[in-house]
Amino acid sequence: MEQTLSIIKPDAVAKGVIGKILDRFESNGLKIAAMKKVQLSRQDAEAFYAVHAARPFFNDLVDFMVSGPVVITVLEGENAILKNRDLMGATNPKEAAPGTIRADFAENIDANAVHGSDSAENAAIEIAFFFSGREIS
Length: 137
Ligand code: RTP
Ligand code: MG
Known about the structure:
By secondary structure, this protein is of the alpha+beta class. The protein is 41% helix and 19% strand. The protein contains 7 helices and 4 strands, in the order βααβααβααβα. The protein has a 4-stranded antiparallel sheet with strand order 2-3-1-4. The mean pLDDT is 98. The chain binds ribavirin triphosphate and magnesium ion (MG). The site of ribavirin triphosphate (RTP) has 10 residues, from strand 4. Keywords: ATP-binding, Cytoplasm, Kinase, Magnesium, Metal-binding, Nucleotide metabolism, Nucleotide-binding, Phosphoprotein, Transferase. One of its GO terms (cellular component) is cytoplasm. The active site is at residue 115.
């Protein structure tokens, strides 16, 4: 079974749609293998999104990710990485397909409700960044 890392971002937590987003995962065959609610530090957010450090949007992204608590989960299932990306929809909610999490709950390209790992390599790195082995089951 494949695993992927999901983050319910500060905009969605503030809106009170944690449960609705978790239901999308569970209703579509993704098991919640680990979960926690966390206020990220600047250092956490900068390290987590280090791949984007050179991008013009990096500072805005970090500011946004520390603007309030997030809910971090490990999702598990067949093709979990791709399945989660499909459920999320496009990065820009204006381009996200109807019925996707971002189409239904995101505000804009910065406050876009969820993060999901984009490859098996990054999923492994991101899961290890937030969870120890004994927190995943
Ligand atoms: P994520 O990593 O959060 O799951 O989002 P993603 O794969 O769909 O998009 P990615 O390219 O990895 O970008 C990470 C986050 O940076 C913000 N972003 N802003 N202003 C812009 O052009 C821009 N591009 C990306 C988004 O909030 C995106 O989720
Ligand atoms: Mg990404």
